[in-house]
Amino acid sequence: MATTTDTPTTTIPGLVDSIWVASALATALGTPALADQDPAGEVLAHAGLFERGESGWVPTQEFEAEIPPERTDMLRQRLISVLGQSATIAARGSGSGWDSYSDGVLLAQGRFSAIAGRLLKAMLGSMPDLAAVFDERRLIIDVGVGVAAGACSICETLPGTRVIGLDVNARALGLARELISAKELGDRIELRLQSVEQLQDVGVASLAHMSPPFIPRPALTEGIPRLYRAVRPGGALILSGISADGAAGAVDRWQAYNAGGSAVTFAECAELLTAAGFDQPRRPDLPPGTPPVAVLSRRR
Prior knowledge:
The protein is an alpha/beta fold. The protein folds into 2 domains: 12-67, no CATH class; 114-298, Vaccinia Virus protein VP39 (Rossmann fold). Helix content is 46%, strand content 15%. The chain has 12 helices and 8 strands. The chain has helices at residues 12-28, 39-46, 61-66, 72-92, 103-112, 116-125, 128-136, 149-157, 170-182, 217-230, 250-259, 266-276, and strands at residues 50-53, 56-59, 139-143, 162-167, 189-193, 205-210, 231-240, 294-298. It has a 6-stranded mixed sheet with strand order 5-4-3-6-7-8, with helices on both faces. Helix 1 (12-28) crosses helix 2, helix 1 packs across helix 4 and helix 4 packs antiparallel against helix 5. The longest helix is centred in the first third of the chain and has 21 residues, at 72-92.
């Protein structure tokens, strides 16, 4: 994101301004144009993101090129979630866990994950042997299903797919049931108020997914062997939200800490996965512009 030259984000005023720029961007994304008198347009223009067009404020060509139309709402939901989480942390203190966030933050985080269907379809398209295993039994275990926006997008994108969604947050599952009902997917998504350490299923799923930043370390360590048993031979476990190494992962570790989860690097994932019996993980092929924050490991 561009920043103003007279208030760099390394200063306190610059950091404050960046928060306001993010809030203005969250309100602007998804609208055809901001009216000339809309103050959000002026803020975004000052940050180098918008400019005056024929019908008001519009994104600059450079900024628009960074955000394809299919990713606009995803970015908006991410901004809403991050701003909400940040405000909660500032007001209540750090390390409060995911239960401390409002329904609005839970929903925004879920909507951000609604890209899951498109990413999984692309992933399977690049791995014909895994796609063949998946086609035999289109069942996925989603650990930390949240409000089920990701599970719904998978079912909508991949016909015939069923999802078993696990979560320990009853409030998130309540919101999930509302979304599933609205999308009429109740016969394809099973929700369980259950931690991954309690998973007893054996050989039922072709794929499983878990995002370590939302999973406490003991649950992650115990959960991966449980998922190994739950996945069929030839299937795979996908771990998303992988942390960068060293100083580059500082923000990743901060986010995981405040979500009550675990920041794990690619090397740490490899150690956990192979110890459970999975193959060495790989970075899956994803659409251009998608951050390389997921790993996939096969069960032979």
